[in-house]
């Protein structure tokens, strides 16, 4: 059984992160209860291009407001492709002995840099970036281990 988790489970600061961290602990503990089923976790970052991803949010903001809202210019996030996410789940499925948490090496990116690339790719130079401020429970920099 593969549990899909997130980098937000590492040193969680909000309910989502805490719920993912608790899910990981339950899955790892479940592995000690039975030998018939292997229980394993995968911990990933933001999957690029999926519904609700930051790219879709930024594109929508460019269309509707002519500006992109970011929380902090130096905030970073881990990113992975859909193909990398699939590979991570398959690796955990076929290589696990049970009780592990699989994490892949992922590139991190400043959210400002991502916004700038999307603005340049749109060909619309008049789109601005607005700094909104860090929200409660939001990490300034993601991490996958602790």
UniProtKB/TrEMBL annotation:
EC number: 4.2.1.-
Domain Polysaccharide biosynthesis protein CapD-like: from-to ranges: 1-140
InterPro entries (UniProt xref): NAD(P)-bd_dom_sf (IPR036291), Polysac_CapD-like (IPR003869), Polysaccharide_Synthase-Rel (IPR051203)
Source species, domain of life: Bacteria
Single GO molecular function: lyase activity
Keywords, alphabetical: Lyase
One Pfam family linked to the record: Polysacc_synt_2
SUPFAM superfamilies from the UniProt entry: NAD(P)-binding Rossmann-fold domains
Family: Belongs to the polysaccharide synthase family.
Alphabetized PANTHER family for the sequence: UDP-N-ACETYLGLUCOSAMINE 4,6-DEHYDRATASE, UDP-N-ACETYLGLUCOSAMINE 4,6-DEHYDRATASE (INVERTING)
Name this polypeptide is given: UDP-N-acetylglucosamine 4,6-dehydratase
Lineage: Bacteria, Bacillati, Bacillota, Bacilli, Bacillales
